[in-house]
Amino acid sequence: MKRFNCIISFSAIIAIIIFSCSISFAQFETIRGIKLKDGSVVFGKILKMNTSEVIIQANDGKASAYRYDNVQSFIKEGNDESAPAVSKETAVGPPEKTTTAKVPINHHTWEIGPELSYIEYQEPDVMREKGMMSGIGAAYSYHNNIMLKADAKLSYGQVDYQNSGTLKNIDDYMLEIRAVGGYDFKLTESLLLTPFIGFGYRYLIDDMKGRVTSTGARGYLRESNYFYSPVGVTILNDFKNSWIFGLTLEYDLFWKGRQKSHLSNANAAYNDLENNQNSGYGLRGSLLIRKIAGRMSYSFEPFIIYWTIDKSDVQNITYNGALWGYGWEPRNNSTEVGLKFNVGF
Hints:
The protein is mainly beta. It is built from 1 helix and 19 strands. It has one helix at about 1-30, and strands at about 30-35, 40-50, 55-60, 65, 70-75, 110-125, 125-145, 145-160, 165-185, 185, 190-205, 220-240, 245-260, 275, 280-295, 295-310, 315-320, 320-325, 330-345. The chain has a 10-stranded antiparallel beta barrel. Strand 8 (about 145-160) and strand 9 form a beta hairpin. It is elongated, with a radius of gyration of 30 Å.
């Protein structure tokens, strides 16, 4: 008896599904076209329709997809072509939303492109370095109300050192990896607000190994490691014609820094010094100008990055194993101003 009831229930479910599909098919058959919220009208056959998109095959045989949120109404048989819009009472499908975001955000987006920047690092009353950096960045982002993004950049440049002595064309290398998550808030039809938080790692090599300054001081290689959490917000606005403008403001919560000075490069009798940095912060800002072209996008993004880090702990410096003195990383700050160009797909 139980098995018989299961068969009856299963048959009823199948019947309901078939009946629902028949109704949907019948609805599609009576639809001659769609009217979009921008006033344009597309006539043709509905191939697919759900709460995300409507796919319609035009009279010339070309199939096109439209976001459901951008459909104002459906044109049914018997309507006058000169006034194809139908009232909301005759429109089929789910009711229209009162507030939607026109900003075209894909669920999955890849971006890659070059960047160029000017960087200046200084330890007040101690030394200064400045020069140009160039590199390449790549990012993957996911949007479905929830936002997830991972990005990385690798850059190289040559900076000039100035202290009591000077040294030019020092090789610098930078690697930065970040991952953030947030939520997309649709404020208006064209405005999207996304607060985010995440984790970042910044690695910088300043290579003075084998170099000698103008005063005869021997250089050495320095490694800088920053661990931090980006906390910020991005605002995107669609100005139609496939142009998008955006603003990102960010505070970088500094967790820890690790500085390694390879003093043995200057004199093998010295030990390599490692210092911990425990306080500081970063600030970032950028402007986004993006052009959507079909499935591709092209963007320019001027940016500024500022770091200020407090004095590190103090560690021993030894000479042939015997205590020679003490070393630390002085309070310092750096500013990087640049421009990114990205291709998205």
